[in-house]
Amino acid sequence: MKSILITGCSSGIGLCAATILKERGYRVFATARKPGDLERLKAQGLNEIQLDVNDSNSIQNALNEVLQQTGGTLDALFNNAGFLQAGAVEDITRDMMREQFETNVFGAMELTRLVLPIMRKQGHGRIVQNSSILGVVAMPYYGAYNASKFALEGFSNTLRQELRGTNIHVSIINPGPITSNLRNNAFTIYKQTLANHHNSAYNHVYAQLEEFYFNPTERDKKIAQGPYAVAKKLIHALESPRPKAHYFIGFPAQLLAFLRRILPDKTMDFLLSKIR
To answer: What span, in angstroms and rounded, lies between the C-alpha atoms of 248 and 253?
Structure first.
């Protein structure tokens, strides 16, 4: 039975992936931060483990628990945990940027580094990073999130090259719009950090974010893929003899990735400025 550790399983992509892989016969270690989320994972028959990717001790304790249950092996890691801090770069403080990177980048980096010796010793492994199309193209007013996902891309692309010939494969999943709690959670964080930023030069932009991004239209809902679309690509990354380096999910992500390759920067900037 193959084993996999998944971060960020409280809802959305992580929960869907954990459920589907369990049904597929994997030994799934589904992690979350909050006790209530852990109880829900347990109630759904998942092997739940407390893990806060912002806390090195929590990361080490969670991994130790996994290794104790598996006898020291781990076949795969899916770094899924993440959140979105919306706002213009001009308004993003150092503490806000640090929080974004702690969750989206540094936690994934640390967990990846810790599982590599395990995978080297057993002679195989799969590491899958849940990035975003915003790790390939940068959209305005999501600068902290863009930067974190670009950093995860750079880290993962480097790691993939360094692991050539080891039978440890690194893949990056780049979803476009996905039906999940990402926007709801982003709105909660925005209200805590920038909603009362009355002196910002971008107040008019924030009004538009509140109207459009944080309240998806029917068109947005039709474009968005369900979490299963990510889980399907995850299965390929875990099981294919030749997993892809990148998996772009949904037509918007595929189109933007293609345009990024062929268009000049200024043309791409203009097109991205028209997306709400």
So the answer is: 6
Cβ atoms of residues 24 and 2 within 8 Å: no
Tokens of 211: 């109207």
* Residue-number span of the structural domain to which 233 is assigned: 3-273
Is-contact 206 197, C-beta < 8 A? yes
Angle, alpha carbons 35-46-82 (nearest 5°): 60
Phi/psi for 61 (5° steps) reads: -65, -40
Backbone angles phi, psi at 239, to 5 degrees: -115, -20
What CATH number has the domain bearing residue 44? 3.40.50.720
Q: Which amino acid is at 32?
A: A
Going by C-alpha positions, the residue among 101, 103, 237, 257 that lies closest to residue 170 is 237
Quick one: which of 239, 247, 236, 109 has its CA closest to 178? 247
Query: What pLDDT is stored for residue 195 in this prediction?
Result: 75
Q: Is 4 helix (H, G, I), strand (E, B) or coil?
A: strand
pLDDT-derived band at 215, boundaries 50, 70, 90: confident
According to the model, what pLDDT value does residue 119 have? 98
Known catalytic residue at 26: no
How many domains are there within the chain? 1
pLDDT in tens, 32-74: 999 999 999 999 999 999 999 999 999 999 999 999 999 999 9
Cβ–Cβ < 8 Å for 125, 170: no
How large is the average pLDDT for residues 75-98? 96
Among candidate residues 141, 142, 145, 213, the one labeled active-site is: 145
Residue 216, number of CB atoms within 10 A of its CB: 16
pTM attached to this predicted model: 0.94
Task: Enter the tokens of residue 175.
Answer: 């979803």
